[in-house]
Amino acid sequence: MKRVFSGVKPTGHLTLGNYLGAMRQWAAVDQHRADALFCVVDLHALTVEHDPGRVRRLSRQSATLLLAAGLDPELCTVFVQSHVDEHARLSYVLECVATDGEMRRMIQYREKAARERERGGSVRLSLLTYPVLMAADILAYGTDEVPVGDDQAQHVELTRDLAVRFNQRYGQAFVVPRATHPPVAARVMNLQDPTSKMGKSEDVGPGIVYLLDEPDAVRKKVMRAVTDSGRDVAYDRERRPGVANLLEILAACTQGDPRVLAEAYDSYGALKKDTAEAVVETLRPLQARHKELRADPSYVEGVLRDGAERARAMARPVVDAAYRAIGLLPPV
Ligand code: TYM
Known about the structure:
Helix 2 (52-68) packs across helix 11. Helices cover 55% and strands 7% of the residues. Helix 7 (153-170) links the parallel strand 4 (145-147) and strand 5. It has helices spanning 16-33, 52-68, 86-95, 100-104, 107-118, 125-139, 153-170, 215-223, 241-254, 258-263, 268-294, 297-326; strands at 3-8, 35-40, 77-80, 145-147, 178-180. It has 332 residues and is mainly α. One of its GO terms (cellular component) is cytosol.
């Protein structure tokens, strides 16, 4: 059976982008076809200015939302990154095969570092080494596939490079993983600025649909989405990004095809209305389940406790083997 690993970072409330680009696929497909692990990567949330209490709250909320989205602890392993020491243990060893030039070339590092500097803040060293920790997350489990949105492709590519390099220098220790992306909505764009990603870490904005938004808030955000100056509805990501984004969201929520859907509409108003309703219907069961789970925090805690135990047992032998291979003396 294939091993699958993926994660979400608790730096903000989860969005429709996280759901359509990643979580939905994990619940509908990955957990059924593979031996899958899904992780709330809280160590990664410490790489930018953060509030400790908020990270803790968002970690709990993200775990609850993963379950609300349909991840079933009978089928897959759900856990919190900092509960399993192997991630940090392996990250250090991988830092010894990665180079600083490689890190500085990462697009997300460059964007986030620029944003921090613009705000007058300093850039944490952990932001630079972020992709190495992510590689450790993936490689510690002998992962074959990493289901993610488009924005994570470069990080997974780096993970492959590090795995190959380590294996060549020190002997076969890691499986070389590959990224997989959903057929549509691999990059959901901000409704107010359809040339940039709908991201949870950005400031609250009318262009971001959060998974826990009330139906009326969702409707309002979708109805106010920025479209393009053209009149007809056409699917063209380059020249008509606003309309293409709505068509992709609608397609993802209705199991449709954005090109075919474009033919069915002759006004932006009708497209927006149907998209808004499709999003509301898609989020409805998730929100209902979230409400139930929130009322039962000990259930979620139990899932995370079992998940961490299972994850530890899987990662320990892989990380121990990498320690031996790179030359560290086994404990006596
Ligand atoms: P994060 O928390 O930013 O996002 C979690 C998942 O959601 C996807 N995603 C999107 N997909 C489509 N459209 C969007 N607008 C959108 N926004 C987010 C992301 O691609 C991702 O799949 N570095 C990772 C977390 C991570 C990780 C890992 C992932 C750490 N270690 C190991 C996989 C494997 C991140 O920041 O994801």
